[in-house]
Design brief:
Helix content: 40-55%
Number of helices: 16
Distance between the termini: 68 Å
Strand order of the largest sheet: 2-1-5-4-3
Structural class: alpha+beta
Shape: flat
Radius of gyration: 47 Å
Number of strands: 17
Largest sheet: 5 strands, mixed
Length: 577
Amino acid sequence: MFNIRLHHMKLRSKLIVIYIVCVFIPIILTNVMFYQVTTVNIKNQKTADAEQAMTLLQAELRTVIEDAAGISYLYSIDRQLLQHLNTTYVSNDRYVESLNAISNLFNRTDTENKIISSSVIMTDNPTVLASGNIIRLEAEMRNKDWYNQINNTHPHLFVTPESISVIQRLTESRFDTYEHVLKIDLNMNHIKQILDLSSFSGDFYILDPSGQARFGRLSSGQPSELITQGRTISLDEIPRPNKAIVIGKTYQNNRYLVGWSVYGVLDEEIILSDVRQSGQFILWFAGINFIVPTIVILIISRSIHTRIKSILKHMKSVKGNNFELIPYHRERDEVGELAVEFNRMSIRIENLINDVYVAEIQKKELELRQRQAQLHALHSQINPHFLFNALETIRMRSLMKGETQTARTIQNMAKIFRKSIQWKSSFVTIREELELIESFLEIQKYRFDSKLDYHIEVDQSLLDIEIPKMAFLPFVENASIHGIENIAGIGYINIQIAQENGQLVFVIVDNGKGMDQEKIIELHHYFEAESAMGDSIGMKNVITRLRIYYGESFNFTIESESGGGTRVLLRLPFDKI
C-alpha cells in the first residue's frame, strides 16, 4: 500500500520529501539540540558565578559597615568623650581645654581613613563650640530622614543614592542632660572600588528592610537615575530586561543589618553573548551540511526546473495574445505531458478567439459607436448658450422696465444653471459652493418676498478648501422649502462654516416648523437604509456620498423640535479634504 502511494506522488513532491526527511530535519534538530544544551550549561555556570560574586560582594559590604559600626560603638562607650559632651562649660577656654584632652580620639588609623569619609558628632549642648568633628545639633537636623530613623540601642544604617552612613545615638536619656548623635559617612570611593573590582557584572541595588531600593548602581558604572534624594523605588519597580537573572541576598544575624539586602539584576542576553557568537560557527557547520545534499538534489531536479520554467514563460505570453507553442522533444515524464496539453490548449484558445471573440468585439464596438452618435445628436438639440442668451434677454427687458428684483432673480437662475453646466469635477471650493447657495437663497427671497432672511458666517481661511460638489446646498434647500415655507412669520436661516479640532464644521439653523423626535428617528432610518439614492441631490444623496468619501471620519447630527426650528451640523475631517 505504501509503495502504491509513492507511485502516485509527483517527482517534485518526492524530492521535497527526501530533502526534508533526510537533510533539513536532521540538521535542524542536531544543531538546535546542541545549541540548547550549550546555552543551558553556560547559563547555569554564569548564574553560579554571579551568585558567588554576589555573596562575596555582600560580605565585603558587611565588613565595611561592621567596621564603621565598631567605630561608632567605641565612641559610645568612651566615658571621656561623653563627659566632654555633657559638661556645661562656663567659658570657651574651658571647652577648648576639654577638647584638647580628647583630640586623640578622632585620629583615625589608615584602615579607618580607607573606609570612612567623615565622622561627626552632633550635640544640642549650647556651650559646645561647633568645630571639627563636633558640631551643633540644630533644629532643622531633627527634621532629616536620618535623624527620624535613629535607634536608641544600636547603630543604624542610613543609605541614600550618594552616601552610606552609620548613625548612633550617644545619649542615654536617663543620665545625660543633652542629646548627642554620631554620624559616620562611609568612603564612597572605597565602596565604588569594591563594586568595580567585583566580578558581578549586572545592576546592583541596596534594599532597606521595607523592600525599598535606596542605592543603585548600573552595570555601566553609573548611578540609577530612578533613585534620587527623597525618592526610592520598590522591588517591583526595579528595571529588568526581558530575560533577567535576579539574585538577592538578605543580611541575617546582625542587629543593624537585619532585613537589609543586596539585589542584583543580570541580563541573560549579555551573559550568553559568548554562546551567541558561537552560533556563527554552528551556522557555518549547518551551511556545509545543507549545501552538499542541496547540490545533489539541484543536479537531479535541473531538467525538471528548466522545462517547467519554459512552460510558465509561454503561459504568461498568452496574456498578450501570443500563442507560440512549446518545443516538444517527446519527453515521457509529467513535464512532457504538461507541455503537450498546453500546446493543445493554446491552439484551441487561439481558434476560439479568432472565430468568436474578435467578431463579437467588433459587433460591440459598432453598437457603441451608434449609441454615441445618437447621444451627440441628442446633446446638439439643446444649446446651453441659447438658454443663457434667452435668460440674459429677459433680465435686460426686466431692467428696462424697472423690475430690478426680477432681473436679479433671473441672473441668479442663470448663474446656477451655468455652474451646473461648468462643474465637471466632483469637488469644488467652499467659495464656489457659497456662491451657489447665495444664488439659491436670493431666488427664494424673491419667491417669499419679505418672508425670508438669511445670514452666512464663514472662516475666510477656509474659502479655498475643496469639498464634494453640492455638499451643503441640499441642506439649505431643505431648510428653505420644508422649514420656512410653511410658517406664518419671517423665516431666518443662519449658516456657519468654521474649523474645530482639526475638522471642517458646517452648521445651518432655521426657525421653521421643525420636527418631533419620532420624525427625526424616521429620518435617520431613511438615511441608514440601503435603498438606492436615485438621481436627486437630496439630503440622503449627499449623506451617502459623504460617507462613501470620508468613511467613519464623517458624522452629522440633526436637532429639532416641533415648532422650534431645526439645526443640522456636519463634520468633515481635514486630513481627507
